[in-house]
Design a protein that fits this description.
Rossmann fold, 2 domains, eight-stranded mixed sheet, three-stranded antiparallel sheet, about 40% helix, globular, binds S-adenosylmethionine, methyltransferase, COMT_dimerisation, WH_DNA-bd_sf, transferase, O-methyltransferase activity
Length: about 375
């Protein structure tokens, strides 16, 4: 088995403020001496997250992406109140995200690079999503008391379509970060190939794989709420005749069959254990012997603990599901007839891990279980 560990470099917890960043008063942490103002760091982190999310939501950084603006024209452009823009920009100047020169306000260069359409990846979509997640996170105490959410994220999205659109836009940014790793992890033969992208959402993975492999055709299966811009993006890339889109619950719909490659990227943590087991087994039915299944997720063994535990807490509040260990995932894969060939820990490790598994040549794993197990019989 191939096991790759990429150079993890230095963690970049952008937005995590330490005393040394200058955002928390130096008096707050003095060696091991108890902090005289223990709420200061928490308050400033709260205001930082709140104001960054608000800036994303009202389009402040994008408005400044092409150059500085006066407070007056920013106010007009954003159709906001002058007082509101002054207060927000004052704070973001103090926090280092903006610069001020007299009346003129500008993005700091890193702000334009990270959070606007002018950067290599527009993480402004993440700020907009954070404005939504901020509201959902107010349910965290209830989720802790009850062991899960009263309403799952997917139910919220079905009721509020803009939520699904903003989530998919953010997932698209995350996918743009991971797609080069995915492309370099796969060594596929030069022949007609069929691709199944379960939970494929924005379509970035399917589009880029089809671009790399001109004889590949694909199907994306996801909830309608995640597909608001997918068909248009496929059309922009002139791939309508190569990539189909199926809006349905992947736990119960027909996926088709005869696939050479299947993607299950950042979906396992949104499913309960028995659902993943059934899905992997059904993948064992629809992926051809010798075909490849790629799983992307955040297994405990390879994910830094601060991020991993934060992510599990998020899942508790949003979906009521959890992450799975590498041992659990490869166990479920083996049960479904897939042999794990590679584990690729991405860099930084917060990007997650790719598991590359191959469908065994025989269908031994399929013997002795119910055909379909909840999926439509053909
Ligand atoms: C974290 S996103 C990952 C999106 C994409 N695969 C990626 O890696 O960027 C999880 C996706 O799973 C989809 N999903 C969750 N539950 C689903 C279900 N029951 N049926 C179909 N799709 C589902 C969501 O709509 C969402 O698009």
């Amino acid at each position: 088995m191939r096991v790759e560990q990429m150079d993890c470099g230095k963690n970049d917890y952008a937005g995590t403020f330490l005393a040394s960043d200058g955002l928390v008063d130096d008096d707050d942490v003095i060696g091991d001496v108890p902090a005289p103002m223990p709420m200061l760091g928490i308050y400033l982190q709260m205001m930082t997250v709140g104001s960054m999310a608000a800036a994303g939501r009202i389009g402040l950084f994008d408005a400044l992406a092409d150059g500085p603006m006066s407070v007056a024209s920013l106010t007009d452009t954003l159709r906001a109140s002058r007082t509101g823009v002054e207060r927000l920009t004052d704070f973001l100047v103090a926090a280092g995200q903006l610069r001020r020169d007299g009346e003129m306000i500008a993005n700091a260069p890193e702000t334009t690079r990270r959070f606007t359409r002018r950067g290599p990846i527009d993480w402004g979509t993440g700020l907009i999503w954070t404005a939504e997640a901020w509201k959902i996170m107010s349910d965290l105490p209830d989720a802790i008391l009850c062991g899960g959410p009263e309403r799952s994220l997917w139910d919220r999205m079905a009721e509020e379509p803009s939520l699904g659109r903003e989530f998919s836009r953010y997932m698209r940014a995350a996918a743009e970060l991971v797609v080069p790793d995915l492309l370099s992890a796969l060594d596929l033969p030069d022949r007609p190939l069929r691709l199944l992208d379960l939970g494929g959402s924005h379509g970035v993975h399917s589009i880029e794989l089809c671009r790399r492999h001109p004889r590949m055709n694909g199907v994306i299966v996801d909830l309608e709420s995640a597909l608001t811009e997918t068909r248009a993006r496929i059309a922009e890339n002139r791939m309508e005749d190569r990539i189909g889109v199926h809006g349905a619950d992947l736990r119960s719909c027909d996926w088709g069959e005869g696939y050479d490659v299947a993607l299950y990227l950042s979906v396992a943590h949104n499913m309960h254990g028995d659902e993943n087991r059934r899905i992997f087994r059904h993948l064992g039915d629809v992926v051809r012997p010798g075909g490849i299944l790629v799983v992307h997720d955040y297994p405990k063994e390879t994910t830094p603990p601060l991020f991993e535990s934060a992510f599990r807490l998020t899942l508790l509040t949003e979906t009521g599901t959890r992450t799975y260990s590498y041992a659990e995932l490869t166990g479920m894969l083996a049960d479904a007839g897939f042999a794990t060939e590679a584990r690729i820990v991405l860099s930084p490790a917060e990007k997650g891990t790719l598991i590359i598994a191959r469908r065994s040549a025989s269908n031994i794993a399929g013997l002795g279980r119910m055909v379909g197990e909840g999926f439509p019989r053909r």
